[in-house]
Amino acid sequence: METDNHNVTDDFSCPVCKARQGWADTCRRCKTDLRLFRRVEEAFRQSRLRTLAHLRAGRWTEALAEARQCYALDANADAGRLLAVCQLLSGDWPAALALARRWS
Ligand SMILES: [Zn+2]
User: Fold this and answer.
1) Rounded to two decimals, what is the model's pTM?
2) Ligand 1 centre from 20 Cα, in Å?
3) How far is CA 78 from the centre of its chain?
4) CA-only gyration radius of the chain, Å
5) Cβ atoms of residues 27 and 19 within 8 Å
6) Ligand 1 centroid, distance to 21 Cα (angstroms)
7) Which of 30, 49, 53, 89 sits between 20 and 30 A of 3, alpha carbons compared?
8) DSSP symbols for 19-52
């Protein structure tokens, strides 16, 4: 059974004051409105799940397009490795190698 260890709901750092907290509409410390950040994180999470679904179904072209979208939403190590896998499966080995080196 696959596990989804990219859980964006448990831990979050306020982009303004860096207070660590669970997801909320406003920061517990500085009261910054965090709703837009939540929407971006949710869009990232959904994009990542769509990428994985395309990979499971063997749809490499669709997986690559979705992985690029996912990486554009949040260029983190998880998204970078996922994009590198999609590039590798699509035959773009130089790009896959460059990303793998960046996020290894
Ligand atoms: Zn804050």
Assistant:
1) 0.77
2) 8
3) 6
4) 15
5) yes
6) 9
7) 89
8) -EE---SB-TTT--B-HHHHHHHHHHHHHHHHHH
Distance 67 CA to ligand 1 centre (A): 30
Tell me, in angstroms, the distance from the centre of ligand 1 to residue 14's CA: 5
* Residue type (1 letter), 95: A
Q: pLDDT (tens digit, 9 = 90+) per residue, 7-33? A: 445 578 898 999 998 888 999 999 999
Element (H, E) at 13: strand 12-13
The residues facing 26 across adjacent strands are 33
The Å distance, Cα 4 to ligand 1 centre, comes to 27
**How far is the centre of ligand 1, averaged over its atoms, from the C-alpha of 25 (Å)?**
11
